[in-house]
Amino acid sequence: MTTAPDPRRWQALTDSAGSIIPALYAEGAPDTVIAQLGAVFTDAARLSMVGAGMFLLAGLVGALAVRRAELTMAP
Hints:
The chain contains 3 helices and no strands. By secondary structure, the protein is mostly helical. The longest helix has 43 residues.
């Protein structure tokens, strides 16, 4: 049986994801919950960085393609 999430915790999670872990630790949450949240936030940050890196790479490839097109079109 599941219970409804505590609205205060949900608000803390959506307002500032990093602040909920110390708050749960201060409330005496189980170490397994805190460790799992830390792992999830780390994975989310890693995926965000990979996505940002892919966009930067796409921008670099686009810039190089424009430069190459400019050089081939020059008289």
